[in-house]
Design brief:
heterodimer; A: mainly alpha; two-stranded antiparallel sheet; 14 helices; 4 strands; about 5% strand; B: mainly alpha; Four Helix Bundle (Hemerythrin (Met), subunit A); 7 helices; transmembrane (chain B); quinone binding (chain B); NADH-quinone oxidoreductase subunit J (chain B); NADH dehydrogenase (ubiquinone) activity (chain B); EC 7.1.1.- (chain B)
Chain lengths: ~425, ~170
Amino acid sequence: MGPLSTKAFLIIGAAKMLMIFVGWLTAVAGVTLAERKIAAWIQDRSGPNRVGPWGLFQPIADGLKNFLKEEVRPAGSSRWVFYLAPVISMFPAMVVFAVIPIAAPLPTRWGTVNMIVADLPIGILYILAIASLGVYGLVLGGWSSNSKYSFLGGVRASAQMISYEVALGLSLVPILMVAGNVTLPQLVSQQQDALWYILPLMVGYLFLTASYFAETNRLPFDMPEAESELVAGFHTEYSAMKFAMFMLAEYANMVTAAALMATLFFGGWDIPFWSGDNMTLAADGSVAGAAPAWWKTTLTGLCFAAKTGFFILVFIWVRWTVPRFRYDQVMSLGWKVLIPMEVVYVALLGGAMLYLDYLGIPFGTRYALYLTALNVVLMLVIVFVVDRNRIILGAGWRQTRPQRVKSEWIEYADRRQDSR
Amino acid sequence: MDFTQLIFYVAAGLAVVSSLLMITRKNPVFSAMFLIVALFSIATIFVLLGAHFLAALQVIVYAGAIMVLFLFVIMLLNLGHDFEPDIRGRLGWAFMGGLGLVLFAEILTAVQGAPGDAGGDVLTPWFEAKGVVAGVAEPLFRDYAVAVEITGVLLLVAMVGAVVIARREA
């Protein structure tokens, strides 16, 4: 079958947009409930359980409440910017989803449809471009409120997000190097042919996760908000639905980040250990690899949803497990730890790839396995040499394996604990 | 009218209007925001021209990084309130207006003196052969590698200089 006709393309494109928009909004609403439920389980509570069975309708009740609440605009605030800021903060998370492939190509009467809204030739760069706009909502919201607490929150937020944008961009470089292209459908098909990039690029995944936690302002990097020790930051003066928009934007960013992690490192919609879904759609409408089928599209879509759901779970899990970094720790982790380590990693990876090319090994499973070996070594170096129990293994490790600590104060504390 | 044409006129009109608004607003924050809109519109025009990579760079570098820094500095130095324009008095306006006209005339002559579309569309086949990213990257890192490296060193020097100047006052 040939490519879609223009009319079919427009109609199907609109349908895809509507589908992804509705699905994504539903997911965001679900995540707000999931966050509260999982928090409750982690803290041994029941969580919201009054509205509907298991509190399932809680997001609807929350939304309704926020619509009915009074909107307050602080005196002396800048009206247009004040109203615009929540919208701007929603926008980037939404449009990034346009380049994420959500399922295997779907065969229809009018031709095979790629399950992606826009297969841009600049895929990952588009993500970086849009992600770099996310900070405006926070900054402008903080500034336009005409309140010093909001303002300080806005400055805090922008400083953090600018810093981690660099780390985020650099953490995508290893993928670009190995993949040799930037479009996400091709990334997915390469991962189907070789290995999921989590294995050959696991150190890169570590960096990406750290940067994404900071970019989405989630714990342990939720400095822009820091509601428990600093005032809530840039949205202090916001009320009702506009406040809810900022909250939704955070969850929306989380959903998008989770979907990206699944796509970039965990094979996207690929179902592992099954070659029945290894298909790629060319621009002329022909399909290479396995034959597309509607049930394959459904299964891969569910697989993508499951992977995304897992990473959302990780986001929530981390939030209710680890405490917040101090502001100077956040900054030094970004500039003095992540960025230099990423540069070194890119250099090492580049060297390894050059050597593999020199040996004449083509891109494939074997190539990926060699890179996996390199990454395992680097991972061990990071955990046991570079980190030295400061961040990754942290306090829990110290408790299970008592170590010689130089500080007299900690020795004193340990002795007191032992004698108890 | 073609759909592409429609997008072009919307983007171009937005670029012109937001540029005008940017230089006429008294509040630096609004100026910065309209500049962002203008940069975005120009990125749209790049996309229409098939230069996806340039459009992405335009948004990443200008709208995403430099303008965030602009806003950050405006806010950090507490400049987010109305300012009197730098151009004051009838003479100042006349001088600046004249300067603008001269610039406009220069651009007009430059456009008219430029070689026409004799070679036809060279870029589209080039990008189709090389890919959108490699089409820009290849000349940059092969033919002009030395220039790129020198520019990098220049930026480093500027950065070190800024750090040195900032430290002297402390």
